[in-house]
Specification:
26% strand; ligase; Phenylalanine--tRNA ligase, mitochondrial; 24% helix; tRNA binding; transit peptide; 453 residues; alpha+beta; 4-stranded antiparallel sheet; BirA Bifunctional Protein, domain 2; Phe-tRNA-synth_IIc_mito; single chain
């Protein structure tokens, strides 16, 4: 399930989206459900004309919702989570091995199936409607998502596959893949990251068979929704599902981070689970959030054809776990092709103890940019997207330093500090100046701002 969304203002469409020159490698989507083996990235994407883009073997007409940039499309099909010895692959394999080893079906085969090659292009219905996310929910906004058009988008979470996988008859699965969200720019946020979704459904017999005198217990009732349960669930069923969920995740995190790990649970809100929780771990003396989880909304389960079952779901970020476990300080490093980075994660087995040894710390170059905002709606995420499109991974951080409202004209000015730092070499002031100048010119041209530079 998806991690908690930030609620922000509605986005203004950035014209820095697709151009006719887009060339991207992707994942062919020849089947509805993929196996745990990833699909080769052999399909090119191109935009033969300015109002159409071809991606993963299909054509998508652009409209007023299209806001995917070439920079983002260039990441589609990289499949870092399936690249052997990559730190994200290591985390995925550790989780997968844990579930394969500890959760077996009646015939001794793994209970959970794994899907790590599902296409990142999904419908808006898959990403939102199937999860019961209301039409006016803030998480649907263009400011937070990458839309191909009004009907198709790059998935914002692996939860987009929940309904389809349950509908296909699965009741225990892990779905892994790259997800896409427009966000701030710093060392822990990147517009493309990787999630793992976990879902488990229980029949009445499966949930209560190990409970003494549990024959008379039921999954469902006609009651009222409270802070602790849904209106259709019995309290006994919810407590057992919640207990199983927390036990499974505690064992998983202990297996990854070691015995003696401290865990705590924080009540929270997710649109398609209730009750919902965030899991925090105490690692090396610091409490860190690592995943979100909860009891699945029964309406979602019912609509997917599993009316006689109740279940849980969780969603975790692979980058988050890898940064904690391997002490990787900058999320951009996961996209590095530098052998000095990649070779550090090659070992005899996936459980090899690894502590990332930093490449020499190159000095940052800092430049500020100020401009008056346009009178129509302005979105900070549009500016961040523009900066990423032009500066790419040379941009370490963008911070809003100052917001000023003119007392007479009422015009609003923003001043941003852009920190440039290459993770693998020293930047020169000349190359940074050229990039910064291109950002200034593009902000005026694409976002309609009035420069103060």
């Amino acid at each position: 399930m998806a991690m908690l969304w930030k609620f922000m203002r509605v986005a203004k469409y950035s014209k820095t989206a697709l151009s006719p020159k887009v060339k991207v490698r992707g994942i062919p989507t020849h089947s509805r459900h993929s196996s745990s083996k990833s699909v080769p990235s052999d399909f090119a994407a191109s935009a033969p004309c300015s109002n159409t883009v071809e991606l993963l073997g299909k054509s998508y007409p652009q409209d007023d919702y299209s806001n995917v940039t070439e920079k983002i499309l260039s990441k589609v099909g990289k499949n870092l989570h399936n690249r052997k010895h990559h730190p994200l692959w290591l985390i995925k394999e550790q989780v997968k091995e844990h579930f394969y080893k500890h959760y077996l079906g009646r015939r001794g085969t793994p209970l959970f199936s794994v899907y790590d090659g599902l296409s990142p292009v999904v419908t808006v219905q898959q990403n939102f409607d199937s999860l019961l996310i209301p039409q006016n929910h803030a998480s649907r906004r263009k400011e937070d998502n990458y839309y191909l058009n009004r009907d198709h988008m790059l998935r914002a979470h692996t939860s987009a596959h929940q309904w389809d996988l349950i509908r296909s008859g699965l009741d225990a699965f892990l779905a892994v893949g790259d997800v896409y969200r427009r966000d701030t720019i710093d060392n822990t946020h990147y517009p493309v990251f990787h999630q793992m979704e976990g879902v488990r459904l229980f029949s009445c017999h499966e949930l209560f068979s190990s409970i003494k005198d549990g024959e008379g217990l039921q999954l469902f009732e006609q009651g009222h929704r409270t802070a602790h349960k849904q209106e259709c669930h019995t309290m006994e069923a919810v407590r057992l599902v919640e207990f199983n969920l927390k036990q499974v995740l505690t064992k998983l995190m202990t297996h990854i981070f070691g015995d003696g790990l401290q865990v705590r649970w924080v009540d929270c809100y997710f649109p398609f689970t209730h009750p919902s929780f965030e899991m925090e771990i105490n690692f090396q003396g610091e409490w860190m959030e690592v995943l979100g989880c909860g009891v699945m909304e029964q309406q979602l389960v019912n609509s997917a054809g599993a009316q006689d079952k109740i279940g849980w779901a969780f969603g975790l970020g692979l980058e988050r776990l890898a940064m904690i476990l391997y002490d990787i300080p900058d999320i951009r490093l996961f996209w590095s092709e530098d052998e000095r980075f990649l070779k550090q994660f090659i070992g005899p087995h996936i459980w090899q103890k690894i502590k990332f040894q930093p490449l020499s710390r190159y000095p940052p170059l800092i430049n500020d940019i100020s401009f008056w905002l346009p009178s129509e709606t302005y979105s900070q995420n549009d500016f961040y997207d523009l900066v990423r499109t032009i500066g790419g991974d040379l941009i370490e951080k963008v911070v809003l330093l100052d917001e000023f409202a003119h007392p007479k004209t009422k015009k609003v000015s923003h001043c941003y500090r852009i920190v440039y730092r290459h993770p693998e070499r020293t930047l020169t002031q000349d190359e940074v100046h050229r990039i910064h100048q291109a950002i200034e010119e593009s902000a005026v041209r694409e976002l309609g701002v009035e420069g103060r530079f």
